[in-house]
């Protein structure tokens, strides 16, 4: 009989179980240490378990455009708001439509709840408007409380110096302000998406200005009317007190993009007020924006990338502003009627890229980048109601769910003990290892990506108990089949593994594929179920390969299991094993040839 070739591991090779156990032990220690170091020792809970805030938003159509509130625009708005407050779809912030013109946003209680509420509240369109005048928003505001205006510069261009904050009074005289306002009233607005007729009308107005008093219907507004409108706007500007919430909310509301307007905003810790010209660029012209650290200066800045059309508009307006004096060389970024930034410009910013610098913290830079990226909604919204959701009902449901899960787990354990006896302890320890890995990873994901555990996610974890137990049963039954064929335990454990491994991988692949599809095609709480199911399915593969199989290999070397003890669950007699698959060998001397006997 030929000897087996060297270098080829024979069937039944036992591998190195100690190495696999060391890997999973190190992983458990690392995850547990990371959980304590992150100070997030419990998973984040969703709004149904921890409570939170529910915000109802009502869509408002723009003046003269009642048809804007339609299904397409509502779905677009839902997608943008959801990306703001629920970037990966698993942090449990729900955004859903109710009726034809309402959106409900559910924000779970947590450390970022206030920030999410602020971003949900700023849901109107985003505009870039030239600054015509600036003053302190409240006459009672102390001097020196304003922060310097940020500056804007093009990508690769020399950086503009931070602008000085205007004084408490308007920085220009009433005459110069009136002249600027009059020019703004006469100038055609670069509206975001003008129709062909509006563009033609604007071009005709530029090319053939009509003298004052002309009866032509396309004539521009007479100078007296411009001056009257400018004086009216200046009077409202002088009377505006942005420290008053009611006046602040009324400023700039229901104003068309092509009209000058008043606006309030924060400058440091104090409120400021602005007179702003017609909108030249809107949020839909911004392709991307984010807060980053400038590697040269080590300061936080906001980078912006414009679309092709937006780049042309931005280059034109910044080229016009660069020739003017403070504050009319600034453009205000206006979101929901509030100025969120007013950088100054020293040169035309071309190329489609720009950055805003000056006095940003990490939080303020990232917030502004987020608003610029996701602020261009097709509709304006008002808060219909803001309610606090208690966790009382969810707590009762969680308690009932945990009781149901405990009963199910107890029944599984009883079944394993009765049917598999000693093998049941391997399954129970494996379930415990899987539970530790699942808990620590969920806690770390809550800190890392905002994963929140809700009731459907708890259901997914309970379902995973059955998936994990099924993997153990498949392996145990393969081992028993080998013993029934007459093999001893140690080779049976190794020969059963390749067959069981294929079955386990196919079964877990199907479960993971179902979870992935469910996660992609659903929204809201169902995603929590799918995410938990997919996570625990992956962990099932890790536990079976790195823990259950190595432990089984080590226990097969012990006398209790290898001898087929009746309580081991591997008793050959109880399993109906066949006689051992071994060739019988004759003992004693070699057979004597017939010729020799006769001799």
Can you characterise this structure?
The protein is of the alpha+beta class and 599 residues long. Helices cover 48% and strands 17% of the residues. The protein has 18 helices and 17 strands. The strands form four sheets. A five-stranded mixed barrel has the order 5-8-7-13-12, surrounded by four helices. Strands 10-11-15-6-14 form a five-stranded mixed beta sheet. It has a four-stranded antiparallel beta sheet with strand order 3-4-2-16. β7 and β8 form a beta hairpin. α11 runs antiparallel to α12 and α13 packs parallel to α15. The radius of gyration is 36 Å and the shape is elongated. About 12% of the residues have low confidence.
Name the features.
599 residues; alpha+beta; 5-stranded mixed beta barrel; 5-stranded mixed sheet
Record field, number of beta strands? 17
Q: Structural class, judged by helices and strands? A: alpha+beta
Strand order of the largest sheet: 5-8-7-13-12
Taken as a percent bin, the fraction of beta residues is 15-25%
Low-confidence stretches: 6-13, 140-148, 155-177, 188-221
Q: Which term fits the overall shape?
A: elongated
Radius of gyration: 36 Å
Could you give a short account of the major beta sheet?
5 strands, mixed, barrel
Tally of individual helices: 18
Give the integer mean of the pLDDT values: 74
Helix content: 40-55%
Distance from first to last alpha carbon:
32 Å
């Amino acid at each position: 009989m030929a000897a087996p070739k060297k270098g080829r591991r024979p069937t039944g090779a036992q591998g190195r179980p100690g190495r696999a156990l060391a890997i999973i032990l190190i992983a458990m220690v690392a995850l547990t240490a990371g959980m304590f170091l992150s100070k997030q020792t419990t998973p984040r809970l969703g709004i149904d378990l921890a409570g939170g805030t529910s915000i109802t938003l009502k869509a408002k159509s723009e003046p003269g455009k009642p048809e804007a509130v339609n299904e397409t625009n509502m779905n677009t708005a839902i997608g943008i708001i959801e990306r703001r407050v629920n970037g990966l779809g698993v942090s449990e912030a729900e955004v859903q439509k109710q009726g034809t013109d309402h959106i409900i946003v559910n924000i779970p209680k947590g450390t970022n709840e206030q920030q999410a509420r602020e971003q949900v509240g700023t849901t109107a369109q985003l505009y870039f408007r030239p600054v015509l005048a600036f003053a302190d928003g409240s006459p009672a505001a102390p001097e020196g409380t304003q922060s310097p205006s940020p500056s804007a510069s093009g990508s690769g261009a020399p950086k503009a110096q931070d602008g000085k904050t205007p004084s408490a009074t308007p920085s220009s005289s009433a005459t110069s302000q009136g002249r600027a306002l009059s020019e703004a009233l006469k100038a055609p607005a670069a509206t975001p998406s003008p129709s062909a007729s509006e563009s033609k009308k604007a071009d005709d107005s530029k090319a053939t200005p009509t003298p004052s008093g002309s009866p032509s219907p396309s004539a521009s507004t007479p100078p007296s009317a411009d001056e009257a409108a400018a004086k009216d706007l200046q009077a409202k500007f002088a009377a505006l007190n942005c420290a008053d919430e009611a006046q602040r909310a009324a400023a700039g509301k229901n104003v068309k993009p092509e009209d000058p307007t008043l606006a309030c905003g924060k400058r440091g810790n104090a409120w400021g007020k602005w007179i702003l010209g017609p909108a030249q660029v809107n949020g839909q012209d911004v392709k991307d924006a984010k807060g980053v650290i400038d590697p040269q200066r080590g300061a936080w800045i906001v980078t912006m990338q414009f679309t092709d059309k937006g780049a042309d508009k931005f280059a034109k307006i910044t080229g016009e502003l660069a020739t003017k004096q403070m504050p009319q060389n600034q453009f205000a970024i206006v979101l929901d009627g509030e100025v969120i930034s007013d950088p100054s410009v020293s040169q035309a910013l071309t190329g489609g890229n720009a950055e805003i610098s000056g006095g940003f913290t990490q939080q303020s830079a990232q917030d502004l980048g987020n608003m610029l990226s996701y602020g261009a909604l097709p509709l304006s919204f008002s808060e219909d109601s803001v309610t606090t959701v208690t966790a009382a009902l969810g707590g009762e449901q969680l308690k009932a769910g945990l009781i149901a899960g405990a009963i199910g787990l107890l029944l599984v354990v009883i079944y394993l003990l009765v049917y598999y006896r000693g093998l049941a302890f391997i399954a129970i320890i494996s379930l415990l290892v899987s539970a530790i890995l699942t808990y620590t990873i969920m806690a770390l994901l809550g800190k890392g990506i905002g994963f929140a555990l809700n009731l459907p996610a708890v259901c997914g974890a309970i379902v995973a108990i059955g998936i994990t137990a099924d993997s153990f049963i498949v392996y145990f039954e393969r081992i028993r089949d080998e013993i029934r064929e007459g093999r001893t335990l140690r080779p049976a454990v190794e020969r059963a593994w390749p067959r069981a491994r294929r079955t386990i991988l196919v079964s877990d692949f199907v479960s993971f594929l179902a979870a992935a599809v469910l996660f992609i095609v659903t929204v809201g709480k169902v995603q929590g179920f799918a995410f938990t199911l997919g996570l625990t399915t992956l962990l099932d593969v890790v536990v079976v390969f790195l823990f259950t199989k190595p432990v089984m290999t080590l226990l097969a070397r012990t006398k209790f299991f290898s001898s087929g003890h009746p309580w081991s669950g591997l008793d050959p007699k109880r399993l109906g094993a066949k006689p051992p698959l071994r060739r019988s060998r004759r003992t004693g001397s070699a057979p004597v040839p017939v010729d020799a006997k006769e001799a």
